[in-house]
Specification:
Blueprint (H helix, E strand, L loop, with lengths): L24 E2 L2 H8 L9 E5 L7 H4 L5 E6 L2 H14 L9 E5 L7 H5 L4 E6 L5 H10 L6 E7 H8 L9 H9 E9 L4 E2 L6 E8 L9 H13 L5 H4 L7 H4 L13 H18 L1
Parallel strand pairs: 2-3, 2-5, 3-4, 5-6
Antiparallel strand pairs: 1-8, 6-9, 7-9
Helix pairs in contact: 5-7, 8-11
């Protein structure tokens, strides 16, 4: 990339990383550039960055996208982005192309804040709430064509895992029902200040061309969560709350455990439970 960016120093002299917020500030600019490049389309009108910290990733998004909105709960980070960061990148930043919001993404009314157009989501996500961020993003799937960024490595692997894997679970199935999931690369602890005790992983979720399911989607979510909440049991035992008929429980699929089922098989399972409820009630 020919354009040179000011190196954002990530140290206690600027913004102090706060343990209770799960903050570990990325300091490796090459990795920040690589994460910014994980979004495959340059045509997105709006990109929402979650947890910008001191803007090490943000600086590679501004100029690349028409509108970048950075959301953080840390007032110290917000103040830094609104002063030092904006002054450093004054030639690139306008009020139209970059906005900082003090908000908790998990509690934020995203569509009121951003409008109901399409937008991508990216970030170096706080590890202590990263799974919840994915679940909320999935609720916004009609508006989010692409989602990428950095997680604790094991969480990123779990999201991208396939059937048969020991880490395949609720996050895997619900994410892959609507998105193509790809684990991209691993980041070592030394790339952060302070360094976390674990490796990190960067992934990309790209929404499927057809992302509507051939079943009741609320029921699908309920079936997946209920099955994996007792993942060691067969589906015949873990799905008892659905009051299944004797005939349906004889179906071969109920002899399997949840980690054996693909997304399409979970859709099929949900269809069977829906049909069974109609025929027996």
């Amino acid at each position: 990339m020919s354009k040179k960016y000011h190196k954002t120093e990530v140290s206690g002299e600027n913004v102090r990383a706060k343990k209770h917020l799960g903050q570990h500030f990325l300091k490796d600019l090459a990795i920040a550039q690589n994460i910014a490049d994980t979004l495959t389309e340059k045509s997105y009108e709006t990109v929402l960055e979650i947890g910008p910290g001191m803007g090490v990733l943000t600086q590679f998004l501004i100029g690349k996208y028409k509108r970048v909105i950075a959301v953080d709960v840390d007032r110290e980070s917000i103040a830094y982005l609104n002063t030092t960061f904006k002054e450093t990148h004054e030639a690139e930043i306008t009020s139209e192309n970059f906005e900082v919001k003090e908000a908790d993404f998990l509690k934020m009314d995203v569509l009121t804040e951003l409008g109901d157009g399409q937008f991508a989501i990216i970030g170096n996500y706080p590890y202590n709430i990263s799974s919840q961020i994915v679940f909320k993003m999935l609720e916004l799937r009609n508006f989010v064509p692409e989602f990428s960024g950095m997680f604790q490595k094991e969480v990123a692997q779990r999201i991208c895992a396939g059937p048969g894997s020991k880490v395949y679970g609720i996050l895997s199935v619900l994410s892959q029902a609507y998105y193509e999931a790809e684990y991209l690369f691993t980041v070592q602890p030394g790339a952060f200040n302070p360094p976390p005790k674990v490796e990190s992983g960067v992934l990309r979720l790209k929404r499927k061309a057809n992302f509507s399911l051939d079943c009741d989607e609320k029921q699908f979510k309920d079936v997946v969560k209920t099955a994996f909440n007792q993942r060691r049991k067969t589906l015949r035992n873990s799905l008892k709350k659905f009051d299944l008929s004797v005939e349906l429980k004889e179906d071969a699929i109920f002899a399997q455990r949840p980690e054996q089922l693909s997304v399409s098989e979970f859709v099929s399972l949900t269809q069977k439970i829906e049909a069974d409820a109609i025929s027996t009630h």
